[in-house]
Amino acid sequence: MNAKRGFSLTEILIASLVMAIVGVAILGALWMLGGLFVQTEEYAVAQQEMETAFQTVGTQIGNAGLGMPNNKEGRGSFSESFYSASTPPVMALMGTESEDWGGPVTLAAVPDLKPESFVTAKTALPNGQNVYAGSVLYYAWSLPTGVRVRALEFPGKEIAQGGEVKLQFADGDVEILESFQYDGRPVGISEKNSPAASKASPRRWIAFPTARVPFWLSGWDNGGASRAGGSDGQINGAIAIMAPESRMSFSRNLFPYEEVHLLQCCRLYLEDGDLIQEFFDTGLQPGDRVSKVIARGIAGLFFTFDPEKRLVTMYAAARGNRVSGGSASLPDWPEFAPPISAADRKYPIVTGVMRWRVRN
User: Which residues, in sequence order, are bridge partners of residue 10?
Assistant: First the structure.
C-alpha cells in the first residue's frame, strides 16, 4: 500500500509567496482605483464650482453697458456721466476723468474700492495683444423692468446738464418699480431698497436705451400721496435729474413708452478661496453694499479686457476639497496671471476660461 503524500514545506512556502504577491497586487490595484475615484470626484467638485462661477456672471457681463453711455472715445465719458457731487459716485468709481480708461467694464489690482487700485495701463500679452489686466473686475449692466414711461415733460427744447425731466407712470407701474427684485435681491427705487423706508428719495440710477446718458431718480413730484387711492388712469410723476457734472452731450431723443432700466454695478474678486460678488449700485458705504459668495474653492482668478475687440476674458482655477499629496500641474494657467499658490497646488485643480464681447 502506497502512503498518501502531502505538500512539502518548500511547496507551501512557494504557494504562500505567490498568494502574497497576488494579494499585494490586488490591494494595490484597489488602492489605485479608490484613489482615482476620489481624485475624479474631486475634479468634478472643482469643475462644478468653476462652471457655477461662469454661469452666474455670464449673462451680466455679456450685457455690460447696454443702454448706457459708452467710452469708445477713450476720455472717461462713462465715469463722468455717472458722477454727481450730491449723490454717491457709484458708477463714477469705475473711471478716471480724462484718461484712456473707464467704462462699463473696468479692472483693478486689489478690491479696496480705491482709484489707485484701478488698472490704467495696458499689458502686452505673449500673443501681442495689448489689454487691461487685473484680479478684480468691475462691471455695470442694466435690468429691463417692463415698465414704460407714459409721458415726458421737458423743461424746454434742450435739457441742460443737471437739468430735470418729469417722468410719468401709471399707478401700477410705480408699485412695480418700487418692489422690483433681481436674483432674490430687492433692487427697487425705494430708499436703501427697503420697503419700510421713505419713498421720497429713491436713490437709484436709471437709464433708457436711446438716451445715451444716465439719470439719477431723485423723487416723486407728488410725494407718493396719490398712489394709495389711484385708479387705472392715475398718472404719477417722478423727477429724474441728469448727473450734474456729466460732460456727455445729450440728444433729445427720449420718447414716451421708453422702457425704464435699473442700473446694476458690482465687482468680482477672490477672498480666502471664495469668489465674491459685491453689489454697490445704491452707494459705496458698507451699509449700502451687498455681497454674496457665488463659488468656493477658487484657487485663481484673473481678468483681461481688450478695448479694441471689446472682449472680456475671465480665467479661473478651482480646486477640490482633499489634498492629493502631489503638486498639481497647471499647463493651461496663463503665465501673465498671478501664480497659483503652493498650498492650493496640493489639491486637484481644474482651470477654465470664458470670454464675452461687450457690445457697448
Answer: none
